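Pasting as-is:
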Amino acid sequence: IHDDWCHDGTFHEAVTGVLLMAQLFSIMPVCGILAKDPRKLRFSYVSGRAFYAYFCATGIGFMATMALYFFVSKRYNFQKMVTAFFYTYNLYAMFRFGQLAKRWPALMAKWTRIDQTLPPQKDEFERATLGYRIKLCSILVMTLSLSEHLLSIVAAVHYSNNCPAVHDPYEAFFKSNFAFLYYYFRYSALRGFLTKFFNVICNFMWSYVDLFVIKMTEQFWGEQRQKFRNVCDLVTTVDDHISLITMLSISNNLFFICVSRPTFVHTVYFWFNLVILIGRTLAVAMFAAEVNDESKRPIEVLRTIPRSGWCLEAKRFAEEVTTDTVALTGMKFFSMTRQLVLNVTGAIITYELVLIQFHKDEAPDVDLCKLKRIDTL
């Protein structure tokens, strides 16, 4: 019983709570995440977690399809494209997490083997630190995400109250905010519940992609470790598994930063949302860059070696540290280093200027609240 409450300092133990939270929202349907031994992790296509993920993927897939159809079948509009991108992005993110879930048991087994070759933590506090930092980071990111989502609902309710075509406030809310569905389908309480349920899943996943990249880098925040080559190999293995998700995180945040634009009613929500998006983007870049920073720290020790202690192996080690780029990547297109933060900032400024002009040239959209619905179903 004592062992069940003691921390072993492994990454598998540290992310247990985060994975449990993810599974509430149908992501990462891996069985055995509560087990202390990572060898008990397994993935099954016929588990309850998997069927829950299938259900949510089907619903989000339907919403993505309808958003795309609404975008291409009506007059092209930038806001319709943003909606289609949002649901399509989340559908693909769910697919990538499903692919990662299948490889998660093997990845955690290798991660634990590497952990066991490194110097052990000194005491219980050190072993618990990684888990506490990941939990604190998770609470902060998801609390900000929840605040942003609640504020968006307030802004949406304010807008739907001005909808002249519908008297029922619930129906007005869904017709004004999910026009890509209720332009074609009759509103009902069940359809409204499912629509909002899948929308909440998407909003959670939208933030969880960033959180996942951040927490995957927490393991490398500690002091300089031995077995440098093993740790570098582990970084490469982790990157092979999550590089697509890293690319999704960066590209999604940049896209929504650039397309955000204020209106008179949504000014508070706009600025709050914009600050959160920029903060999340920089947090992902900075936290992921810590992997590269830690990989360069051994050179500080190597430079203190006296001439009498210098040898061929030390020279090889120094060359390996200085020449190898040990970092997470976005599909191998770019490495997550501190230089990327400057590049991301430049990209945000550049594309904001371009898209501001784009918005000025775009014709105003028709008020979707006033569209005539096709009651076919």
